[in-house]
Amino acid sequence: MATTLFSTVYGISVSSASSLKPRKDRNLASFNSQNPFHLNPLSSNLVSGSSHRLIPRNFCRKLFRLRATVLQDEEDKLVVEKSFQSTTIPDDEGKGSHGEPSESSSSSGLERWVIKLEQSTNILLTESVIKILDTLYHDRHYARFFVLETIARVPYFAFMSVLHMYESFGWWRRADYLKVHFAESWNEMHHLLIMEELGGNAWWFDRFLAQHIAVFYYFMIVVMYALSPRMAYHFSECVESHAFETYDKFIKAQGEELKKLPAPEVAVKYYTGDDLYLFDEFQTARAPNTRRPKIENLYDVFVNIRDDEAEHCKTMKACQTHGNLRSPHSFAEDALEHESGCILPQTDCEGIVDCLKKSVTSSQAKQK
């Protein structure tokens, strides 16, 4: 009788345990994603049939307790904390056959760390400059805008300077970047002319401060852009984002007064002129001829300046992915080039280190 009872218990336990394995493999991922802190899946309803009357409940719990603990430990390992959302990589991606991280996984982790460091540095620098401007220009709006626009146009000069140097060495043949950055500087220059017409540059101190910050800012961006274009573009995005927020707050606070004032002549000519090619060129997130401002008063001017800063932010964000920037007018030009059969080579590089590396590699390839 004891032998029979032991055989029955052993057979049921083996069949129950074996039936659980494919079920766990099939449903583990979905179950774990829905509720990582789940209960024991081996409940008493898994032992069914008339034979369960022969097994004491406590004995059944003890029998499967060890296996339930193992399953719980294995499932808990699948809960991975994702701290960097922009370039999140699955936990098992890039692992070799033995579960060890591959070289691509290690390089991806290093790149994410570098990106976070670059962005943290940019945010710290931007917030420091903002605190200085808040202290000096608490209630002098036009003077603050003059300083902002003097500074905001500098990065595009720096970008073009570095790209022209790359072109001189034969490292760069992508015209879209030069076209877009020049259009951005053209837009910021007209913002600056508007602020000068409004009297933002009336004080000598404001001109002195803005111009000397611009000189220092230029060389800083040149070095930053040569070492890491991604970091330089993100820094410019931070500056343009602050400009957008500044104009937006000013419009909401002074909107009714601005509607009573006339628009500066330079603003009317720039936004409503016949030649708006460069106005469309810096807005890479929209198709050409889709934005045509109406300027009736000073309120409309500041609304369009604010919207320009938003377009700059989108363009700078797109530039942070290497090779992602395209001129809004390039799509029609590409169609003409395909029809004529004339396609120019697009040589480029990401930072001066990458340029030097590609230059040496191409020289060795030509010698062979």
Write up this protein:
This is Ubiquinol oxidase. Residues 87-107 are annotated as: Disordered. It catalyses: 2 a ubiquinol + O2 = 2 a ubiquinone + 2 H2O. Belongs to the alternative oxidase family. GO terms for molecular function: alternative oxidase activity; metal ion binding; superoxide-generating NADPH oxidase activity; ubiquinol:oxygen oxidoreductase activity. With 368 residues, the protein is mostly helical. The protein has two domains: 2-76, no CATH class; 111-355, Ferritin. The protein is built from 13 helices and no strands. Helix 1 runs parallel beside helix 2, helix 4 runs antiparallel to helix 8 and helix 5 packs parallel to helix 7 (204-227). The longest helix has 34 residues, at 103-136. The model is unreliable at 1-55, 59-101 and 335-345 (pLDDT under 50).
Summarize the structure.
This protein has 368 residues and is an all-alpha fold. The protein has helices spanning 2-34, 57-76, 103-136, 141-152, 154-168, 175-197, 204-227, 229-258, 265-272, 277-281, 298-319, 330-340, 351-367. Residues 1-55, 59-101 and 335-345 have low confidence and may be disordered.
